[in-house]
Amino acid sequence: MRPRDPREVGRGASPLELFFDLVFVVAVSIAAINLHHALSEAHFWDGAISYLLVFFTIWWAWMNFTWFATSFDTDDWLYRVLTVVQMAGVLVLAAGVHSVFESRDFTVVVIGYVIMRCAMVAQWLRASRGAGDARRAALIYAWGVAGVQVLWVAWILLPPSPATTLVQLALFGIELGIPVLAEKRGNTPWHPRHITERYGLFTLIVLGESLLASANAIIEAREETESFTELIPLGVLTLVVTAGMFWIYFWPPHHEAIGGLRQTFRYGYGHYVVFAAAGAFSAGIEVEIDLLTGHSDISEVAASLCVTVPVSVFILSVWLIAIRQHANRVVNVAMPIGALLVLIDPIIPVPITLTTLVIIAIVVVLVLNPPRDRDESSDTEALTS
After folding, report:
1. Long-range interactions of 43-52: CB distance < 8 A, separation 24+
2. Mean local confidence (pLDDT), 260-269
3. Contact, 3 vs 71, CB < 8 A?
4. DSSP type of residue 322
5. pTM assigned to the model
6. Domain range enclosing 224
7. Are residues 224 and 370 in the same domain?
8. Which residues neighbour 339 within 8 Å (Cβ) at sequence distance 6 or greater?
9. Which of the 8 DSSP states describes residue 121?
10. Residue 4: pLDDT above 90?
């Protein structure tokens, strides 16, 4: 298992990577469904915290596999077997999501997470044998990840308390720190176009959840009520907003957003916010449908905020990590202002109407102001930096 060439021509996502992503569709969907139920029942704070904690484990497992694959993907039989083991861990994790929302019980989630991470340890140990200059980094990854898994197993044995939550956050911090330490001691090679394509594909997964959630909710509502005229405009607006979020995300040349270590970590870690916001948007749409069909007693303002907050966060986070450095002044003013205007939507009687208009306006601005420095030489410049 030798490092892949970061300048490899035509490098794209492999069929195994696409297959791997399928299990994350399940995990993201279950997390969004449980967030939807929590928000509809007015458990805003508990629902949001549970969602963010669960989504971290989903995102972090996906991201670690993705960055490892861009450096060491051999696609031989052992690599495939260990990848399938990680997929099994994701499914176990997904089975425990409901318990987190119900009683903050992370036992099953941690078991699934440890299964994934132990397979990842095996991958790093195997890679270290032929990693060359990246050997030290590979070993830091392997032993660092292994050590944290021991701490996770010990953590689920602790009795629930505020201190337990603080320990959990500390363990998240350690997880985030391992790649920083490893990459400073010996860089692993990453392929700019491949890694950003993988992030783009995961973004499509979470945006697709919004379309699926709204379609399923409208179908279910249609079966329960004779009149669903209010749901048709909401379905149209959902499609337009989702398409706008797609347009915003894929406007900049993402492969130019990574290069130096600090810039790359900002891009990689910043996508936690992007993915979580896109996933929460699907839950917000279902909350709006619950309100319109009489299945929720929360206020109209609260229901609208369940939609507008994720959209606003998505716009701001994509702007900060991928758009800002490639945009002119017009775009860099329009993006944050647009994100703030989206938050005003709850005062409008018709759900997410203002959000839709703002998204359309942002897309128009982006079309009229194409990104700068889009050229083929950027890969070499990024790697050199």
Report:
1. 44/302, 46/101, 47/101, 50/100, 50/101, 50/104, 51/101, 51/276, 51/279, 51/280, 51/283, 52/276
2. 88
3. yes
4. I
5. 0.90
6. 192-384
7. yes
8. 312, 313, 315, 316, 319
9. H
10. no
